[in-house]
Amino acid sequence: MKVENRECVLYDRECIDCGECDICDLDPLKICDNCGKCLDIKDDAVIKIDKIIMEDEK
To answer: Bigger pLDDT: 25 or 44?
Structure first.
């Protein structure tokens, strides 16, 4: 059974199973667990309101 060659996600070459793509970007001693901290994802969208302009009621 022949295994398909995979492309490396980091470099322009075939995958050589080096494992470099599994290393955490923030802590090189940790295996990536998809925590998202490197993506700076916010849980909530926040809008800052500087002032409220109300039209005069007639």
So the answer is: 25
Residue 5 near residue 15, CB atoms below 8 Å: yes
**Domain-wise residue ranges, the chain:** 1-58
| Inter-residue contact 6 to 15 (CB < 8 Å) | yes
What whole-number distance in Å separates Cα of residue 41 and Cα of residue 15?
29
Tens-digit pLDDT profile for residues 23-39: 999 999 999 998 888 88
pTM of the model: 0.52
The answer to whether the beta carbons of residues 19 and 26 sit under 8 Å apart is no
Give residue for tokens 């996600």: 9
DSSP secondary-structure letter at 31? Answer: B
